[in-house]
Design goal:
It is a single chain. The protein is α/β, with parallel strands linked by helices and about 500 residues long. The chain folds into two domains: about 220 residues, YjeF N-terminal domain (Rossmann fold), CATH 3.40.50.10260; about 270 residues, Ribokinase (UDP-N-acetylmuramoyl-L-alanine:D-glutamate ligase), CATH 3.40.1190.20. Helices cover about 40% and strands about 15% of the residues. The protein contains 17 helices and 18 strands. The strands form two sheets. Strands 1-9-18-17-16-15-14-13-10-11-12 form an eleven-stranded mixed sheet, with helices on both faces. Helix 9 links the parallel strand 11 and strand 12. Helix 15 packs across helix 17. The two termini are about 20 Å apart.
Length: about 500
């Protein structure tokens, strides 16, 4: 799914109005109908709802929503944010339609106590067209809504939040929603960690934006859904054998850190790889053979012929000793095909930047935020971090995955791919090792680097989501993710 910038969203609306064709007022009606359906599925008619509207088309959405809910016998109070007398044309049309209902009124906002009689507040003050920080006319009502201690829904985007870059925004003057009901596409700002307290959980509502606009309009941002990954390439035919599904090599682990190696190797096997060799130190070989009898162990790196392997991963639990650095350097001198770099391999490269000259094109880096900082340097905010990481991927022509909520893949062509699966329970030791193993297994099975990375990140998150339903978020551990990779495949129909 493409993610469009705020100005492109306006263009998409205009394109739909012209080419469907549909009037702007009817498109607003359609959008509000989707809002009303979601709210009616979640909240009973006993819920006391205050809808706060601004003067533009976001306020118009709020007016239509209020009318539809009143007609369906919901307890609605409509509040005008009361900071200007300049209203959009569609706002005024829908204001007239709302007031045509019997027994309704539009109240003017005056103080915080106005919200105390309601269970739910719906923010319809500003939409994604906002281009400057809210001023002192508007800030007091946003503060009052945030301090009301009521459940809060934002329509399209939390008022005060920009669609993309909020580096210079005034954080205290932005709505803090529990849910954001947004139209058709997520906004880039929804996917950046610093905005989570404003966005809450976001819900995508399909309002029928014209498909021609979506298909014809370029974007550098994408949101990965099941239809976007390459799992269909993993389906097997009757006469397949283990040699059909590749031979992976994972170079990982050290004394005291064998857990990382075991998790990565086991996840690689669960991903469907045909054969797996794991390089370990001689003193830890027995640990691996007992923990994972399906893997073949190797202890002398110079005995390996790297052309025998269809995918190579290095780093989980490797350590950052001189011995580890020598091992990494040797591998880089021998291998010209893409490599998966994780954990300590990334840390070693960050400390020895000359190694970057040896990195094979289309290799995959999977750092967590701290490892990324060591690799590319510090940034002041997550938006800037994206573009600094983008410079790295373009310069070295590699793929870079920034792990976290909505993990983002940065392509060597400069595009960003945000993931839609996963949950906070996956913020646990070893989760990243599992991910590197899954990606390596997919790469070994013949998926191209980008295909393996995008598919692996999605499946890893989906396995975590399935595990969450079984054990809950607080109890989720990395092994639970591995155990549910198969269930993730089954859910996808593999």
């Amino acid at each position: 799914m493409k993610i469009f910038k705020a100005e492109q969203v306006r263009e998409a609306d205009a394109f739909t109005i012209i080419h469907e064709p549909i009037s702007s007022i009817d498109l607003m009606e359609r959008a509000a109908t989707k809002l009303a359906e979601w709210i009616k599925n979640k909240y009973s008619r006993q819920t006391r709802i205050a809808i706060v509207v601004g003067p533009g088309n976001n306020g118009g959405d709020g007016l239509v929503l209020a009318r539809q809910l009143v007609i369906d016998n919901y307890n609605i109070c409509l509040i005008d944010s009361n900071f200007t007398n300049k209203y959009s044309k569609d706002f005024l049309i829908n204001k007239k339609r709302f007031l045509a209902l019997s027994g309704v009124e539009i109240k003017k906002w005056n103080n915080q106590e106005q919200f105390y009689n309601y269970d739910l507040i719906i923010d319809a003050i500003f939409g994604s067209g906002l281009t400057r920080a809210v001023d002192n006319r508007i800030a007091p009502i946003i503060h009052a809504i945030n301090q009301s201690n009521r459940e809060l829904i934002a329509i399209d985007i939390p008022s005060g939040l920009f669609g993309e870059n909020n580096c210079s925004n005034q954080r205290e003057n932005i709505i803090k929603a529990d849910y954001t009901l947004t139209f058709q596409f997520p906004k880039l700002s929804f996917l950046l960690p610093e905005n989570i307290s404003n966005v809450g959980d976001f819900v995508l509502l399909d309002i029928g934006i014209h498909k021609d606009y979506i298909e014809q309009t370029a974007s550098e941002y994408f949101y990965t859904e099941a239809k976007d990954i390459f799992y269909t390439k993993l389906k097997r035919d009757k006469f397949s054998h283990k040699g059909t599904f590749g031979h992976a090599l994972i170079i990982a682990g050290s004394k005291g850190m064998m857990g990382a190696s075991i998790l990565s190797n086991k996840a690689c096997l669960r991903s469907g790889v045909g054969l797996l060799s794991t390089f370990v130190e001689k003193e830890t070989e027995q640990v691996m053979q007992i923990a994972l009898p399906e893997a073949m162990t190797r202890t002398n790196i110079q005995d390996l012929d790297f052309v025998d392997f269809s995918a190579i991963c290095i780093g989980p639990g490797l350590g950052q000793t001189e011995k580890s650095l020598d091992l990494l350097t040797y591998v880089l001198d021998q291998v010209s095909s893409p490599i998966v770099f994780d954990a300590d391999a990334i840390n070693l490269i960050a400390r020895n930047h000359k190694l970057l000259e040896k990195i094979p094109k289309e290799s995959i880096f999977t750092p967590h935020p701290k490892e990324l900082e060591r690799l590319i340097g510090k940034t002041t905010d997550q938006y800037s971090r994206l573009y600094k990481a983008q410079e790295f991927t373009i310069k070295y022509q590699v793929y870079l995955l920034i792990k976290g909520a909505n993990s983002v893949i940065i392509h060597p062509n400069g595009c960003f791919y945000f993931n839609s699966t996963g949950n906070p329970g996956m913020a646990t030791a070893g989760s990243g090792d599992v991910l590197s193993g899954v990606i390596t297994g997919l790469l070994a099975q013949g998926l191209a680097p980008f295909e393996a990375l995008r598919t692996g990140v999605y499946i890893h998150g989906l396995a975590g989501d399935i595990a969450k339903e079984i054990v809950g978020e607080p109890s989720l551990i990395a092994s639970d993710i591995i155990e549910n990779v198969g269930n993730a495949y089954k859910k996808l129909g593999v």
